[in-house]
Amino acid sequence: MTDRIRRRAALLAPLSVVAFCLPGAAQDNPLVQRGVPAEATADNAVQARDRAFASARRIAWQRLQAATGASGSPSDSQLESMVSAIVVEEERTTPTRYVGRLTVQFASGTAGLSRPSGGGGGVSVSMAPVANIEAAASFGSLGEWLELRRRLLAAEPVAGVEVMSIAINSARLRLSLRAQPGDAQGGIFAAGVLVDGDGPSWRVGLAPGR
To answer: What's the pLDDT tens digit per position in 58-84?
Structure first.
């Protein structure tokens, strides 16, 4: 092996280790669908984003069905309650259009859903969300973020957690609630999450000592 080949091998070796350690294998878990296209046009950017996310959830569900044989034709609101998190891989926006690529994570047990008795076209899901609210989350480390997200998903009033953006120590979330915001706060605090705010947006974080 020449010195040039040795130098190239030394440069590529760390990259191979990184690629091996990346969670790309999570695609083997059908509940985590990566690279889901999200595209929509509407009167404004907010509506376009909402429509694009709804389309992406539908595409992710179809992929899940193909991988697991899960049955049912859930409505958009049911699909939203079945999704525990959405991570934006890339996105481009204009005043009337949203184009992105997402990772869509379904709640544990989703693949086991089946058609309800009576021949309806829906699926058996937990109580559908009745409200959505945006929340600013604060945390001090990756471990705290993962624990905060786990507690939110475990809270009885929370039907889903959508990650709208995330940084080193903060995130912007959209919470799907099974109760009106004022009624949901007690159940969320019982799961170990502090909630501050009584308007259209909240601030959330880990409750100390919980």
So the answer is: 999 998 888 777 777 888 888 888 888
CA atoms within 13 A on the CB side of 193: 33
**Strand, coil or helix: 23:** helix
Per DSSP bridges, beta strands 131-138 and 201-206 are: parallel
Q: If we measure between CA atoms, which residue out of 40, 95, 36, 57 comes closest to residue 174?
A: 57
Q: Per residue in 34-57, pLDDT tens?
A: 999 999 999 998 889 999 999 999
Query: Per-residue pLDDT tens for 103-156?
Result: 998 886 665 543 333 333 333 334 456 888 999 999 999 889 989 988 998 888
pTM, entire model = 0.46
Instruction: List CB contacts of 104: < 8 A, sequence separation 6 or more.
Output: 32, 33, 36, 56, 57, 60, 83, 86
Token pair recorded at residue 104: 């869509």
Q: How far apart are CA 203 and CA 134, in angstroms?
A: 9
Beta bridge partners of 191: none
Burial class for 97, CB neighbours closer than 10 Å (0-12, 13-18, 19+)? middle
Q: Structure tokens of 183?
A: 């009624």
Q: What is the DSSP letter of 76?
A: H
Closest CA to 155 of 204, 190, 127, 196: 190
Residue 159: closest CA among 93, 78, 86: 78
Distance of CA 119 to CAs 64, 73, 181, Å?
Answer: 21, 11, 34
Residue 3 dihedral angles phi and psi, to the nearest 5°: -60, -35
